[in-house]
Amino acid sequence: MLTLTDAAEQIRTRRLSPVELARDCLANIDRLNPTFNAFITITADTALDQARRAEAEVMAGKWRGPLHGIPIGLKDLLDTAGVRTTAASNQYHERVPAKDAELVKRLKQAGAVILGKLNLHEFAFGMSGVVSAFGPSRNPWDTSCITGGSSSGSGAAVAAGLCVVSIGTDTAGSIRCPSALCGIVGHRPSAGVWSADGMIPLARSFDTAGPMTRTAKDAVILLQALATSPMSAPPDRSVSQLKVGLPQKGFFDDLQPDVASCMEQALALIKTLVSEVRDVQLDVSRRRTVFDAEIYEYHEEMFTTHPELYDPHILVRVSGCAGISATDYIRARRELLEQRRTAASVFEQVDVVITPAVPITAPELSLLQPLGEPELRQFETKYLLRNTVPFSVLYWPSCSVPCGFTREGFPVGMQISGRPGSDEIVLQVAHDYEQATQWHKRRPPITKVAG
């Protein structure tokens, strides 16, 4: 499968047919989706109509931009007019929105080809991806393993070549975790870069959609194309002038040995690309009061009227969010704002911080599926959420980029995070690292190469 960068240029110069590219993706979906279970709903006829329209416009000299004719998958939290949007839950099994989410409107205006809706951990309330009314997605590198969540289908679809790029959502790590475990790039944007209008929420203060792509350059293109306002230009200096911080405590502890080895090699290379790498202190509370209060606010009516329609795991989790007082919520919000102010002082020393994205590689589905609550939640918190949730709490832009593979062939992700509004700096570091390595070019051996 071509990168977005390459596909867009070939479409612009009329060397690639949007119709043929869409057909390649749909053929891959037809062949591989029964195995990976990445898509919940496939909109093949609509996608081909959009591709034909894009091709006619390009041939007439009316190229709209880098998303014109590009096949894209959408996490099934984004409302699509006339196409069901389920949140992977029986609560919304046949829910069909009347209008598009703002991001979907922008995609259509850009001439994108929307292939369908992607699987997820039910209501995005989990990081493993094993809980879905439509069954779990499977990892293209080893179908016995999880993809990570909650954007499970979004990660699997890009890694497996079912679409050129996908859109996921991230509340506590739901873009970065599956990106790391599936060997792709996933970026959580700064607040307000992408609109959340028409997106089913988990916790509104922390939710954002974001790009899931093959390369950091692809992520920049997608991020800029759908931004609600022009993104600020990066400062006039190269990565070689940047300082990198390593928050060792809590982020580098108890890594799986192969993850530790990949990170050690990645950081040795990073040291040759930037001006300085130093240890920094970054303490972030993982208290869930604000998260939980906002989750229950959205779910209260469904939880009260139709609790039986939730998966048992999600029912327990929603129940655990109830009962937070207004006083506790207000106090927690005040503490959150103070924590963000305090943490920002790290940027007096460095420009970005780097950590492992996830301290382990993808575990087997058979390990997690038998777990009840709270055992599954405890596993997710200990292994899948640990390194991503702090940057969601702080709402810093944060990107996972492939940084190596284990001896068994599982991908490992490196997480790069920066001050609010520094998305392009974060992605520039990811891009320069990619240019010095080959990890982002590796593909799961079982997928068809299209394009």
CATH topology of the largest domain: Amidase signature (AS) enzymes
Q: Could you name the CATH homologous superfamily of the largest domain?
A: Amidase signature (AS) domain
- The DSSP helix count reads 15
How many structural domains does the protein architecture include? 2
Q: Estimate the global geometry from the Cα principal axes.
A: globular
Q: Please state the CA-atom Rg, rounded to the nearest Å.
A: 20 Å
Elements, N to C (H/E): HHEHEHEHEHEEHEHEHHHEHHHEEH
Describe this structure in words.
The structure is a single chain. This protein has 451 residues and is an alpha/beta fold. The protein folds into two domains: 4-285 and 330-441, Alpha-Beta Complex (Amidase signature (AS) enzymes), CATH 3.90.1300; 289-329, no CATH class. The chain is 38% helix and 13% strand. It is built from 15 helices and eleven strands. The chain has an eleven-stranded mixed β-sheet with strand order 1-3-2-4-6-5-10-11-9-7-8. α5 packs parallel to α6 (176-182) and α7 (216-225) runs antiparallel to α15 (423-435). The longest helix has 19 residues, at 18-36. Residues 447-451 have low confidence and may be disordered.
